[in-house]
Amino acid sequence: MGYSVSDRNRANNNRGQMFEHLVDQGCHVYRQKKVAIIEKTPEPFRVKGKNKDGTFVGWFAGHAQPDYKGTLKGGRAIAFEAKMTVKDRIQRDAVTVHQAGCLDYHFDMGAKVGVCCMIKNTVGFVPWTVWRDMKEIYGRKYMLEKELREFQVATPGYIDFLRLSEGDGYGSK
Questions:
Q1: What pTM was computed for the model?
Q2: Edge-to-edge strand order for the sheet containing 112-119?
Q3: Which of 112, 119, 121, 156 counts the most CB atoms within 10 A of its CB?
């Protein structure tokens, strides 16, 4: 017996929530170790009204910012997107044009910038220069799981996305 579309969607949603939880755990570990303070950026959202059952009606009030922003020990800023897929590749366009513009700006200002992503079971932190220039590097606008392995990071109960060293293509400084 196969899975229904709603079963697959629910499973993918659960995987996405687990992925985000592991990124959040990484942020928590770095804060505890006094290595960085990195916070999830809330979506720009307006509430129109609240229902008696506690639900509400609302709308997105603007373009999304990068998923996470913060400061590394020593004062350098960090900004990154978090993206995951159960497919065999992740599309460059998973980062919207607006998000890419924000990440470009952070990169130009010297921040550590990248995309924390998961393809199937591989988790990596891809430098912004690689994500942005994917077409020139790979000849296409997507990355395969085997290519993500070059940027693979440990997942010891959290995603250890800060493990790569400076001078790694994450920022202009």
A1: 0.83
A2: 36-40, 68-72, 77-85, 112-119, 122-127
A3: 112
